[in-house]
């Protein structure tokens, strides 16, 4: 009998040991619904781990549009004494190009260690044809949505301004719920300046002779820096649309179907002409536009060792930031400092306009007359298709008083020198005062005063305060549960504030709002992220005697945060959800 008990104990020991060993092994895998699909089919990707983890990071899903996700699911079970746990993140994807597409690994942190899933390669073929299937919302929207890049001039000269306007045309039969830039052009071989669109204004328009609505999304001013045929990279957008279906609601209004569509403006080509060589002046430095040219001085009469400012200025309309101002040529006997460059330029729909200048500081050392010679400034005007040259007027600087230069001394050396009496100008000699206005200093000392003893006793009075604060800090450090609650409270306030700042940006707003709600639950109900489920939250809130309307409001907010990842939400809906979150949290605080 004892032998059988020993054998039973040994078997039980190894069974538990094996179960613990099996339970301690961490797995993080990826599963896809199919490895080959058509361009119009959908793909389900699921990342699964057998341990609870944090900081899950999905791959970028290049080559796919994310239609839904991430959807989180948690499963716990016991099988023959072995605990089983499963945490999964699911995505619904649709390819946006054909060929072989690789889904990169996802990452998650478990027990302080980083784990990666495997990479998966998907083969995408032509769209699958189903002649019996009705047209989808995407098919309907595709014919009524067009992104166009309109160019003011297709054959500009080198450094001549052109404007590109990106306009979205929408058919009256569909509604746009939102859009997001996917690919922004880089404008290689162009100097570019964005003109911000402060407000999107929709107006009635025509596209290829049909009635449409249009809205300007982006404006940019370009100055080509290279001649020949240049390509403008396309702007691509992901647009959320609502397409009316054949179904009607209770009040007879049409029911709309949601769809996400990618549109592109396509490549555009610019033929840049070289500036003519015939008639090009030697003073031309690359200025293209319509300009004025000035050379001015702050004064023309001064004494030696005094300073003046000479300014070389170009004003007008053109490529003001893309050429050099002519250099001022001054006599060598003048001390000249490096010029200070100033710009006052505004860029509008038609290009750059304003003025640029170089300011020279000049200090003459000797008396005499110093001419500032005329200088030339040349520019090419695309309107007249000719070069123009502007010349500055000659200016003479008169230095009235000061020492004589070496040249003047050499000229007067041959003459008989004459003795002159010393002449004084101004107050060159001052008397030294023999009597001062001194006052006696204060003879009261700090030592042995009342303030001296107060400052001496202050460190002793601070000792019990320091002991009290130290004990309180140690008590707070030992309160692990309280620290978690306080941290979760701070995070809830932080993310709720972040949600308010991102109103109007759907994804950032609902991510911050969801984090705020989760951290609020952590603080009030003392639960972890892995325990977040609607049933669990409802059960705990009922135990706390929270009324049903407050519970339903809280759960609806969590549902909206999840739905917002793949559904269009308006700014009004976001503002309502934010106000509702503050109201629900306030009501729950009172009841708790």
Question: What are the main properties of this structure?
Answer:
alpha+beta, Immunoglobulin-like, 4 domains, five-stranded antiparallel beta sheet, 9 helices, 30 strands, 26% helix
Q: Summary?
A:
This protein is an alpha+beta fold. 26% of the residues lie in helices and 39% in strands. A hairpin with a 2-residue loop joins strand 8 and strand 9.
Average pLDDT:
79
- Overall helicity: 25-40%
Q: Roughly how many Å is the radius of gyration?
A: 40 Å
Backbone structural class: alpha+beta
CATH architecture of the largest domain: Sandwich
Q: Which oligomerization state do the chains in this entry correspond to?
A: single chain
Number of strands: 30
Signal peptide: 1-21
Transmembrane segments: 452-470
Region (Disordered): 401-422
InterPro entries: BatD
Can you characterise this structure?
The chain has 592 residues and is α+β, with helices and mostly antiparallel strands. It is built from 9 helices and 30 strands. It folds into 4 domains: 27-125, Immunoglobulin-like, CATH 2.60.40.10; 137-272, Immunoglobulin-like, CATH 2.60.40; 292-399, Immunoglobulin-like (Sandwich), CATH 2.60.40.740; 480-591, Four Helix Bundle (Hemerythrin (Met), subunit A) (Up-down Bundle). Strand 28 and strand 29 (386-391) form a beta hairpin. The model is unreliable at 14-22 and 410-429 (pLDDT under 50).
């Amino acid at each position: 009998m004892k032998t059988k008990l020993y054998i039973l104990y040994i078997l039980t020991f190894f069974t538990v040991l094996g179960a613990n060993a099996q339970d301690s092994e961490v797995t993080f895998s990826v599963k896809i619904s199919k490895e080959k699909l058509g361009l119009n089919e959908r793909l389900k990707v699921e990342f699964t781990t057998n341990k609870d983890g944090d900081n899950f990071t999905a791959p970028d899903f290049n080559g796919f549009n994310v239609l839904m996700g991430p959807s989180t699911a948690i499963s716990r079970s016991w099988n023959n004494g072995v605990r089983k746990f499963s945490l999964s993140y699911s995505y619904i994807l649709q390819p946006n190009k054909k060929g072989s597409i690789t889904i990169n690994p996802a990452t998650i942190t478990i027990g302080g260690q980083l784990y990666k899933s495997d990479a998966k390669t998907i083969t995408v073929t032509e769209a699958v044809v189903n002649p019996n299937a009705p047209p989808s919302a995407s098919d309907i929207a595709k014919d009524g949505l067009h992104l166009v890049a309109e160019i003011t001039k297709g054959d500009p000269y080198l450094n001549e301004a052109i404007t590109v306007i990106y306009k979205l045309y929408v058919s009256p039969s569909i509604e746009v719920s939102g859009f997001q830039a996917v690919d922004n052009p880089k404008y290689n071989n162009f100097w570019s300046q964005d003109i911000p669109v402060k407000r999107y204004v929709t107006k009635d328009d025509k596209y290829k002779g049909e009635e449409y609505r249009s809205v300007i999304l982006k404006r940019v001013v370009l100055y080509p820096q290279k001649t020949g045929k240049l390509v403008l990279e396309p702007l691509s957008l992901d647009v959320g649309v609502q397409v009316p279906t054949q179904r009607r609601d209770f009040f007879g209004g049409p029911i709309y179907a949601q769809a996400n569509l990618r549109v592109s403006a396509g490549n555009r080509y610019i033929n840049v002409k070289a500036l003519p060589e015939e008639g090009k002046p030697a003073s031309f430095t690359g200025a293209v536009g319509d300009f004025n040219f000035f050379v001015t001085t702050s004064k023309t009469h001064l004494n030696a060792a005094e300073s003046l400012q000479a300014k070389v200025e170009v004003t007008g309309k053109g490529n003001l930031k893309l050429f050099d101002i002519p250099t001022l040529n001054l006599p060598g006997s003048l001390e000249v400092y490096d010029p200070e460059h100033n710009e006052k330029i505004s860029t509008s729909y038609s290009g750059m306009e304003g003025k640029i200048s170089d300011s020279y500081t000049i200090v003459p050392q000797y008396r005499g007359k110093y001419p500032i010679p005329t200088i030339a400034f040349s520019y090419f005007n695309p309107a007249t298709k000719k070069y123009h040259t502007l010349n500055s007027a000659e200016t003479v600087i008169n230095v009235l008083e000061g020492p004589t230069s070496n040249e003047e001394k050499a000229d007067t050396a041959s003459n008989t020198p004459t003795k002159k009496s010393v002449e004084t100008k101004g107050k060159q000699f001052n008397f030294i005062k023999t009597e001062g206005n001194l006052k006696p200093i204060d003879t009261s000392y700090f030592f042995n005063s009342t303030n001296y003893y107060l400052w001496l006793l202050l460190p002793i009075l601070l000792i019990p305060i320091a002991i009290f604060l130290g004990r309180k800090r140690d008590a707070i450090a030992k309160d692990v549960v309280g620290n978690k609650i306080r941290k979760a409270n701070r995070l809830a306030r932080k993310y709720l504030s972040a949600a308010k700042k991102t109103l109007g940006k759907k994804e950032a707003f609902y991510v911050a709002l969801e984090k705020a709600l989760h951290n609020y639950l952590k603080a009030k109900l003392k639960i972890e992220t892995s325990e977040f489920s609607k049933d669990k939250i409802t059960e705990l809130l009922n135990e706390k005697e929270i009324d049903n309307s407050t519970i339903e409001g809280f759960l609806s907010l969590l549902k909206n945060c999840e739905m917002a990842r793949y559904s269009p939400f308006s700014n009004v809906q976001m503002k309502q959800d934010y106000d509702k979150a503050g109201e629900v949290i306030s009501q729950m605080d009172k009841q708790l």
